[in-house]
Amino acid sequence: FCFPCSLPCFLWSFTSSPPFSRCLVGLASGNLDVERRLSLDGSWIVESLAVGGELVPPLEGGGPLTLVVAGEQVSGASGVNRFTGRLGDGNVFSPFAVTRMAGPEELMAQEEILLAHFGSVDSIESSSSETLLLVRGQVVVTLVLMGTDLAPAA
Question: What is the four-CA torsion angle of 123, 125, 130, 136, rounded to 10 degrees?
Fold first, then answer.
């Protein structure tokens, strides 16, 4: 039986770079219920996001890009604005409520990309200090748990 989704399968995948483990049935199909899903609780900072098909670091000059998960509650900062929402079954984000403050054009464009990525996530891979948000198997956002050696200095 698979550890995360408890389905009778042998589709437990180990990837070595970065060191993640995932259930190919439970995560890909969204079959993990609230009690069995990956624990993403904590405060995360965006390390990179996909722009034009390439993972790039966030632009400088705006506030940090963050994601805070507490159970099913999700909130964070997208550079200029703040957002809130829920983490649903299968670790998929609900639509976010977002403040509507204006900022520099390039930061607003980055924010739009980040929020679109959050809204498109269909699977999540996580280790103890790094999380990858994926759309159709492609990494669109990498997050680092704040308070680890990998997190950027505040």
Answer: -50
